[in-house]
Amino acid sequence: MIQAYAPAFGDAITETVVVPDRTIRPGTETLDGVTLAYEKADAAEAGVNLVIELPENRVLIAQDLVYNRVHVFLQQKEMGPWLAHLRRFQEKEYDFVLSGHGLPANMQALADMAGYLEDARSALAASSDVPTLKQHLVGKYPLYRGEMLLDISGRYLYGT
């Protein structure tokens, strides 16, 4: 897959795959005096997402659970579990939300992401191909970056 994207990304994409050699499990640990709370978020952007909280610092490292003003990589049409994870984190209070794509944000990023996923759910129900999906989502979110993520999503959603 790396070779397929190399022409588009040039030197910005790696030539090798790095495989992790450590497993992080849900729970907490303290590193250099900073408490990290690891949570598993299933069936969201990926089959399994790692979300990290720094509770004492009121920071949520949402990773790919949240995209901040960037179009979303969609590989399935079911948004229910992803939305449930977002609602769960919205019940807490963070000063900073660090998304997998986009600039650091605040709690509003969680609500914005949930709104985007609701719109994506509707767009997917009304679309049978990438151009139609893009028409819906880019039309609704014209200032969002990363439109090509919707093109990449097409491989998973429509086989194109």
- In what range is the share of β-strand residues? 15-25%
Radius of gyration: 17 Å
Biggest beta sheet attributes: 5 strands, mixed
For this structure, what is the CATH homologous superfamily? Ribonuclease Z/Hydroxyacylglutathione hydrolase-like
Give an overview of the whole structure.
- This is Beta-lactamase domain-containing protein.
- This protein is α+β, with helices and mostly antiparallel strands.
- It contains 5 helices and 5 strands, in the order αββββαβααα.
- It starts with a helix and ends with a helix.
- It has a single domain, classed as Metallo-beta-lactamase, Chain A.
- A hairpin with a 5-residue loop joins strand 2 and strand 3.
- It has a 5-stranded mixed β-sheet.
- Helix 2 runs antiparallel to helix 3, helix 3 runs antiparallel to helix 4 and helix 4 runs antiparallel to helix 5.
Quick description:
The protein is α+β, with helices and mostly antiparallel strands and 160 residues long. Helix content is 36%, strand content 22%.
